[in-house]
Amino acid sequence: MSADQQRNADIRRLAEARATEPGALLPILHAIQDEIGYVPESAIGIVADVLNLSRAEVHGVVTFYHFFRSHPVGQHTLYLCRAEACQSMGARALEAHARKRLGVDFHETTADGRFTLEPVYCLGNCACSPAVMVDETVYGRVTPERFDEIVG
Amino acid sequence: MASQKIYVPSDTTARSLGADSVAAAIEAEAKKRGTPVEIVRNGSRGLYWLEPLVEVEIAGVRHAYGPVATADVAGLFAANFLAGGKHALALGPTEKIDYLAKQTRLTFARVGVIDPLSLDDYRAQGGLSGLANALKMTGEQIVATVTESGLRGRGGAAFPTGIKWKTVLGAQAEQKYVVCNADEGDSGTFADRMIMESDPYVLIEGMTIAGLAVGATRGFVYVRCEYPQAIATMRAAIERATAAGFLGDRIQGGERGFKLEVREAAGAYICGEETSLLESLEGKRGMVRYRPPLPAIKGLFGKPTALNNVLSFASVPIVLDKGAAFYKNYGVGRSRGTITIQLAGNVKRGGLIEVPFGPPLREILYDFGGGTATGRPIRAVQAGGPLGAYVHPSQFDIAFDYEQFAAAGAMVGHGGLVVFDDTVDMGEQARFAMEFCAVESCGKCTPCRIGAVRGVEVIDRIRSGVNEAANLALLKELCDTMVVGSLCALGGMAPFPVLSVMKHFPEDLRSSSVSNGGVAAERRA
Question: A82 and A59: one domain?
Answer without folding.
Answer: no
